[in-house]
Write a structure and sequence with these properties.
With 311 residues, the protein is an alpha/beta fold. The chain folds into 2 domains: 161 residues, 3-Layer(aba) Sandwich (Rossmann fold); 136 residues, Rossmann fold (3-Layer(aba) Sandwich). The chain has 12 helices and 8 strands. The strands form 2 sheets. The chain has a 4-stranded parallel beta sheet with strand order 2-1-3-4, with helices on both faces. Strands 6-5-7-8 form a 4-stranded parallel beta sheet, with helices on both faces. α5 links the parallel β3 and β4. The longest helix is centred in the N-terminal third of the chain and has 19 residues. 40% of the residues are buried. Belongs to the ferrochelatase family. It catalyses: Fe-coproporphyrin III + 2 H(+) = coproporphyrin III + Fe(2+). This is Coproporphyrin III ferrochelatase. Keywords: Cytoplasm, Heme biosynthesis, Iron, Lyase, Metal-binding, Porphyrin biosynthesis.
Length: 311
């Protein structure tokens, strides 16, 4: 008797595969409106600053998808799990991943986004696109919406905070300000009672409790440039405030809203925030990204299987 096959659509934001794809990628983000030469140069400069000619960002997602497939099949050998990629702003797009599953004869599928926290504007948008394509193709598909308090996710993040605190050597833990961060979203989500801010605070609180950190706060980063306001305060403003008003000298940034190394971590934190910290005389360290951390892969494997089992 052949094993039941379950397709898993692993969704993420996507990045260009090389510098010459940045314009097409940016145009897609801007809903088909090409960027101005100045906007394109700014974004290309940021990519060049972090990759220096070598472009590892897409490879991170590829490795995560491969590691998840291996983890699922090792954890649940009675089922054959096949993972597919679906990206929001680059090929293979979300619809491409769903279509490939249907072509491969998959009848039952699960969708999951490589972001633990739900917002109707982020994860909700991914799910809507996948759901519409699945219905069009007659594919039965369920979705994991969030997993922000999964014990293994909290453990993986806590391990990183504990390890990175060691970089401050003789500084007492109480004298190190831990700032948890995530990608900002337009402020209107608060009026919509979107769970995103609360879920992020819940994750941060759980990690702080597990690591015995009392001196912590939350900050936003990587806000878009639109006419409407985005959630704040921004991490750069936070650094100025805590230095000028509280004389904080040591800062550990833990980007709980991000799971892999990409522009918002490698540029916005490692270059931009680090530069601000240096100007202010702050010693700033960042926790390493989860990427293919076994505990993170186990988190994803658990929530996917629980959904399949109807738990």
């Amino acid at each position: 008797m052949s094993k039941q096959r379950i397709g898993v659509l692993v969704m993420s934001y996507g990045t260009p595969e090389s510098l010459d794809q940045v314009e097409a990628y940016y145009t897609h983000i801007r809903r088909g409106n090409p960027p101005s030469p100045e906007q394109l140069k700014e974004l290309t400069d940021r990519y060049e600053a972090i990759v220096g000619g070598f472009f590892p960002l897409r490879e991170n997602t590829n490795k995560q998808v491969k590691a998840l497939e291996e983890r699922l099949n090792a954890d649940h050998p009675q089922v054959e799990f096949v993972c597919y990629q679906g990206l929001k702003h680059a090929a293979p797009f979300i619809e491409d991943g769903v279509e490939q599953m249907a072509k491969d004869g998959i009848r039952q599928a699960v969708g999951i986004v490589l972001a633990p926290h739900y917002s109707v504007m982020s994860v909700g948008g991914y799910i809507k696109r996948a759901q519409e394509k699945a219905e069009e193709l007659g594919l039965s598909m369920q979705f994991v919406k969030s997993y922000h308090l999964h014990p293994k996710l909290i453990e993986a993040l806590s391990n990183r905070v504990t390890e990175t605190l060691q970089r401050f050597e003789d500084t007492p833990k109480a004298d190190i300000r831990v700032i948890f961060t995530a990608h900002s979203l337009p402020e209107k989500i608060v009026e919509m009672r979107d769970p995103y801010p609360e879920q992020l605070l819940a994750t941060s609180k759980a990690v702080a409790e597990q690591t015995g950190v009392d001196n912590w706060q939350f900050g936003w980063q990587s806000a878009g440039r639109t006419a409407s306001p985005w959630l704040g305060p921004d991490i750069l403003d936070v650094l100025h405030t805590i230095k000028n008003e509280e004389q904080v000298q040591n800062v550990l940034v833990c980007p709980v809203g991000f799971v892999s190394d990409h522009l918002e971590v490698l540029y916005d934190l490692d270059i931009e925030a680090q530069q601000t910290a240096k100007e202010l005389g702050i010693h700033l360290e960042r926790t390493p990204s989860l990427n293919t951390d076994p505990l993170y892969m186990e988190t994803l494997s658990d929530v996917i299987y629980q959904l399949c089992e109807g738990k």
